[in-house]
Each structure stands twice: as C-alpha cells, then as structure tokens.
C-alpha cells in the first residue's frame, strides 16, 4: 500500500484514516465504518490513490453508502468517480466544483467535471446514519471559501478536514489567515472531541489546535512579498513537517509564481 491507514476504534464506529504519500500532498480520506456501512469523506487528488482507498474500503465488507466532499479543492474531489457512490456536498461547494470545469490527474489524464460533481446537497444539521448521529456544520473562510465539518458527538470524533493540518505545511492560497485562525478557535472550543481528523496528515488529538495557532501566527509574521523567501523561512521554522509542495502551490496564488 502506498498510503498510510490509521484505524481508530470508537465502539459502534471505526474510523479508517487514509493518508496519501508526500507525493500527493499527504491528503487524507476518512472512511467512517458504522455497523452496516461505510461513509467516505473526501476523494483524493491522484486517481491511483483514490483507487487504493476504494479497494481498502471494499475490503471492509460493507456497502459504501456515500462520498462526502468537504470543500472545492481538487486534491479532495478529483477521485470522486472512483468511489461509485452518491456524492454529497454543501451546495456552495458543488457550485464551486462545477465552476472549475474539467480536472487533470498528475499523470495527465483528464477528469470530466461531471465525474466529480456532487449530486446531493448536504444541509447543516444532524443526520442519523445507521444509528450514528452525524452533525454537519458549514464554515466560511480560512483554508477555503466554504468548508464542511462533520462531528460525531457520541464518539468524540471531529472530522475537520482542511481546517486542520497535522505536521503538514499549510496551503495559504486563500489568503485568509485571520479567517483560518478564527475557525481553529471555534473548533477548539468544542472540547468534548478527543479525536481530530485532518485533511492533510495523520489523526491527532486536541493539541493540534495549538500547533495550528502557532503555525498561522508564524506564517502571518513571515509572509511578505517574496514567496521564495517565505518558503525558506517557514521550512526553517518547521523542518520536520511534510507537504512542502503545498507551499509552492499556495505561492502561485499569492505571488503568481512557483518557487523552487
């Protein structure tokens, strides 16, 4: 297996957190296994990693009930068609995916936008799936314009996806550090959640919120008008963190150039 799977047993629920390799941005797909089915959250960037996630999910021996896309960044929805399941998302996220048009796998394969577009709207609120309450919350601003957060209160599981990164460099291309810091504070205030599932990196505990606060503060201090200088500075401050290519991608949005 090229990805890394972390299994967390929560009684009626088992979480299988699949993290892609550094070559695919350490993006994570969450497979939430309830007594009778599997709910997938986010679909990977590279189709090869999506295929690996789907093969793992099928190995659990339960039907794949749905795929939930949390936000409209391609590393989280490119592989949607591979899941062969209904695709759910916030209406705003669906519209943002549609507006981007066709995608392209890292191998060069074109991915038609119709293969990635969610067809079922997620409404904020609580939905009981297979006896397990899922709480859906919409966040605005931060890492992306609109993001879906999923809480499993009975299990103490917070599926934060890209509002939380764990030991992985942050994508700052949305240019909204204050909005991201505000979202982190809101998530951290829900102190009953002991398992935090990030969109990039391995599962974490609540300590991840302080790590994110420090990184965002450091990024705000270091982020000037020179993307290459910023990359050198943030890598020096966080040398052990993965996903350095995320800095390059963000710099294209922030400065209009890719840094070596």
Short note summarizing the structure:
By secondary structure, this protein is an alpha/beta fold. It is built from 7 helices and 14 strands.
How would you portray this structure in words?
The chain is an alpha/beta fold and 260 residues long. 29% of the residues lie in helices and 28% in strands. It is built from 7 helices and 14 strands. The chain has helices at residues 47-58, 91-100, 113-116, 177-188, 208-222, 227-237, 245-255, and strands spanning 4-10, 13-19, 28-33, 38-41, 64-68, 87-89, 103-104, 110-111, 120-121, 125-129, 132-140, 146-152, 157-165, 195-200. The strands form 3 sheets. Strands 1-2-3-4-5-6-9 form a 7-stranded mixed beta sheet. The protein has a 5-stranded mixed beta sheet with strand order 10-11-12-13-14, with helices on one face. β1 and β2 (13-19) form a beta hairpin. α4 (177-188) packs antiparallel against α5.
Q: Outline, from the CA principal axes? A: globular
SSE sequence, one letter per element: EEEEHEEHEEHEEEEEHEHHH
Number of helices: 7
Supply Rg.
Answer: 17 Å
Number of strands: 14
- Helix/strand-derived category reads alpha/beta
Helix content: 25-40%
Q: What is the terminal-to-terminal distance?
A: 29 Å
Query: What is the spatial order of strands in the main beta sheet?
Result: 1-2-3-4-5-6-9
> The biggest beta sheet, please?
7 strands, mixed
Low-confidence stretches: none
Tell me what portion of residues adopts beta-strand conformation.
25-35%
What is the residue-averaged pLDDT? 96
């Amino acid at each position: 297996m090229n990805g890394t799977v972390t299994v967390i047993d929560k009684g009626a629920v088992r979480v299988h957190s699949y993290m892609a390799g550094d070559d695919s941005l350490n993006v994570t797909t969450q497979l939430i296994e309830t007594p009778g089915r599997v709910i997938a959250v986010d679909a990977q960037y590279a189709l090869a990693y999506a295929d690996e996630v789907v093969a793992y999910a099928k190995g659990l021996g339960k039907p794949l009930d749905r795929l939930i896309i949390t936000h409209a960044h391609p590393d989280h929805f490119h592989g949607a068609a591979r899941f062969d399941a209904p695709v759910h998302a916030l209406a705003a996220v669906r519209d943002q995916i549609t507006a981007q048009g066709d995608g392209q796998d890292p191998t060069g394969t074109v991915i038609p936008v119709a293969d990635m577009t969610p067809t079922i709207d997620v409404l904020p609120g609580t939905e009981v799936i297979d006896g397990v309450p899922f709480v859906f919350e919409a966040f605005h601003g931060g890492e992306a314009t609109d993001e879906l957060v999923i809480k499993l209160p009975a299990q103490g599981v917070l599926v934060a996806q890209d509002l939380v990164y764990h030991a992985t460099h942050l994508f700052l291309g949305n240019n909204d550090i204050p909005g991201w810091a505000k979202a982190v504070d809101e998530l951290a205030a829900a102190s009953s959640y002991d398992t935090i599932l990030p969109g990039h990196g391995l599962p974490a505990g609540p300590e991840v919120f302080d790590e994110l606060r420090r990184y965002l503060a450091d990024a705000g201090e270091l982020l000037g008008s020179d993307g290459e200088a910023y990359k050198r500075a943030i890598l020096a401050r966080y040398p052990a963190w993965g996903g350095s290519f995320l800095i390059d991608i963000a710099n294209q949005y922030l400065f209009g150039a890719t840094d070596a």
